[in-house]
C-alpha cells in the first residue's frame, strides 16, 4: 500500500470515532460523569502518546532548541485559532451536560472546532507513517478515544436544537474524511523531507495536540469528575505506556 494511502487510512480510522460518538449521542443517553471519565482517560493517553512517540522520537533527530521551538509554535498556533473560535458552543464543544441547543449556524462552528482539534493529530499520523516507523496502537487509540466524547456531546446538543440525523451524520463523516486528507498531507508534503524537518513538524503537531488537551479535554473532564479526573487521566497515561512497551 502506498504510504500516502496508508496515512489517509489511519487518519480516517482514528477520526471514525466521531461517527461512533454521533451514533451513541443520537441513540443512547449517557451520564455527564461517564463521558467525563472517558475524556480524562483519553487525555492521559494523548499526553503519553505525544510525549513518548512524537516528541520522544524527535530527540534523536534534532536539538532541544528545535524541539522546544516547534512544540511551542504548535501550541501557540492552536491556542490563537481556538481563541478566535471562542463561541460558547465551540468553547465547550467537548462538554456533555452543559451543551446548549445548537442554532442554525452553530453546527458549522462546532465542525470548525472539531476539525481544528483533529488537524495536528492527523498530520502527526501522516508523519509517523511517512517516516517508516511503526504506527503505535497507543497513538491511534488515544486519538480515537478523544474523539468519541466530542461527537457524542455535540450530537446531543444538535439533536436538541432540531438538527436531523442525516445532517449530523454528514457533518461528522465530512470531518473524518478531512482528517484523512490532513494525514495524507502530512505524509506527502513532509514524507520526503530531511529528518530534522520531519522531527520539527512532528513537534509542532505535538504542541498543537498538547494545547488541545489542556484547553478542551482536561477542563471539560474536570468540570464533571474533579475528584477523580487526575486518577483516571493517570490510568490512561499508564495504559498508553504499557502499550508502547508491548510494541517495543
From TrEMBL:
Looking at the record's lineage, which domain of life comes first?
A: Bacteria
Looking at the UniProt entry, the stretches that span the membrane are 7-28, 35-52, 58-81, 102-119, 125-146, 167-191, 197-218, 230-246
Which residues does UniProt assign to the signal peptide? none
Question: Keywords in UniProt for this one?
Answer: Membrane, Transmembrane, Transmembrane helix
Stated name of the protein: ZIP family zinc transporter
Q: What does the record give as the organism's lineage? A: Bacteria, Pseudomonadati, Pseudomonadota, Gammaproteobacteria, Cellvibrionales
Amino acid at each position: 500500500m502506498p504510504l500516502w494511502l496508508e496515512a489517509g487510512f489511519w487518519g480516517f480510522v482514528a477520526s471514525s470515532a466521531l461517527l461512533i460518538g454521533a451514533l451513541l449521542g443520537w441513540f443512547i443517553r449517557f451520564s455527564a460523569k461517564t463521558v467525563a471519565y472517558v475524556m480524562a482517560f483519553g487525555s492521559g493517553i494523548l499526553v503519553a502518546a505525544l510525549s513518548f512517540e512524537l516528541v520522544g522520537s524527535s530527540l534523536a533527530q534534532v536539538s532541544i532548541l528545535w524541539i522546544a521551538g516547534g512544540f511551542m509554535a504548535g501550541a501557540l498556533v492552536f491556542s490563537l485559532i481556538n481563541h478566535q473560535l471562542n463561541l460558547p458552543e465551540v468553547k465547550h464543544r467537548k462538554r456533555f451536560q452543559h451543551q446548549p441547543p445548537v442554532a442554525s449556524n452553530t453546527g458549522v462552528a462546532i465542525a470548525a472546532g472539531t476539525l481544528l482539534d483533529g488537524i495536528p493529530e492527523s498530520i502527526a499520523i501522516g508523519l509517523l507513517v511517512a517516516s517508516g516507523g511503526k504506527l503505535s496502537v497507543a497513538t491511534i487509540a488515544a486519538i480515537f478515544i478523544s474523539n468519541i466524547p466530542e461527537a457524542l456531546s455535540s450530537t446531543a446538543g444538535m439533536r436538541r436544537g432540531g438538527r436531523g440525523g442525516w445532517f449530523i451524520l454528514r457533518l461528522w463523516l465530512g470531518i473524518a474524511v478531512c482528517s484523512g486528507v490532513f494525514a495524507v498531507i502530512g505524509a506527502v508534503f513532509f514524507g520526503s523531507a530531511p529528518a530534522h524537518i520531519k522531527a520539527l513538524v512532528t513537534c509542532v503537531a505535538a504542541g498543537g495536540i498538547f494545547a488541545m488537551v489542556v484547553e478542551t479535554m482536561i477542563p471539560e473532564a474536570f468540570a464533571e469528575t474533579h475528584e477523580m479526573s487526575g486518577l483516571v487521566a493517570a490510568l490512561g497515561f499508564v495504559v498508553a505506556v504499557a502499550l508502547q512497551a508491548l510494541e517495543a
